[in-house]
Design a protein that fits this description.
Blueprint: E1 2-6, E2 13-16, H1 28-36, H2 45-55, E3 59-62, H3 66-75, E4 78-84, H4 92-98, H5 100-103, E5 108-111, H6 112-115, H7 123-132, E6 140-143, H8 146-155, E7 158-162, E8 171-172, H9 175-182
Length: about 180
C-alpha cells in the first residue's frame, strides 16, 4: 500500500480573494456568538456564519493539473488522504462544499476541525496512519507551507514541498512533477 497526504489550500486548490493572514483563534460559533452578544439580537449564529462567508464571495479554484494527478494516483493504487487547516471561523461543511469536486478522490479527509488541532501538530497525520493501519513514518505529505513541512517533521514522515511561485532545489512547482518524484 502507498499513502499520500495532501494539504489543500495552495497545494491542490486556492481561494481567489482569500486574505493571506488568518490568525489561529477560535471556532466560528465562538467568534460569531461574541459578535452578536452586545447587540442583543435574536439571530441564529449559523445564519450569521453563512452570511459572512457568502458575503466574502470567495471562489475555490482547483489548480488545472489537480484532478488529472489525483486520477493517476488512484490508477496506481495510492490511498489519498488530505490534511488541511480550515480558514479560521470557516465551518468544515462550508469548506467541504467548496471543494466538493475533489472529495471523491480522497479515501480519507481530515481538516483541523476533524483533528481538533492545527498544523504543525501531527494529530491529523496520526489519524490518517491509524485509518489505513499504515506506519506514520511511511506517509508522504505534500504541502506548500513551512507549517506543512514542520508537520511532516513532527510525524517523522516524508515531505514534498510544492512551491508554485518560487521554486527551490528542494521543491516541485506543480503536481505533474509529483508523479515523477513518486516513481
Amino acid at each position: 500500500m502507498k499513502v499520500v497526504v495532501f494539504d489543500l489550500g495552495g497545494t491542490l486548490m486556492q481561494y481567489a480573494g482569500m486574505p493571506h493572514s488568518w490568525e489561529d483563534l477560535y471556532s466560528a460559533e465562538y467568534i460569531f456568538t461574541k459578535i452578536l452578544e452586545p447587540w442583543h439580537m435574536d439571530i441564529p449564529v449559523q445564519s450569521c456564519i453563512e452570511t459572512f462567508w457568502s458575503g466574502l464571495q470567495l471562489k475555490a479554484e482547483i489548480y488545472p493539473e489537480t484532478i488529472n494527478v489525483l486520477q493517476k494516483l488512484k490508477e496506481k493504487d495510492y490511498k489519498i488522504a488530505t490534511l488541511t487547516d480550515l480558514p479560521n471561523a470557516m465551518p468544515d461543511d462550508i469548506f467541504r462544499r467548496d471543494i466538493s469536486k475533489l472529495l471523491g478522490y480522497f479515501d480519507y479527509y481530515v481538516s483541523s476541525s476533524v483533528a481538533g488541532y492545527r498544523k504543525p501538530n501531527c494529530k491529523g497525520l496520526q489519524m490518517i496512519s491509524e485509518k489505513f493501519a499504515f506506519p506514520i513514518t511511511k506517509l508522504i505529505f505534500i504541502g506548500d507551507e513551512e507549517k506543512d513541512r514542520r508537520t511532516a517533521m513532527n510525524a517523522n514522515c516524508k515531505f514534498i514541498w510544492i512551491q508554485r511561485t518560487e521554486k527551490n532545489k528542494e521543491s516541485i512547482d506543480n503536481l505533474n512533477q509529483l508523479l515523477q518524484v513518486l516513481e
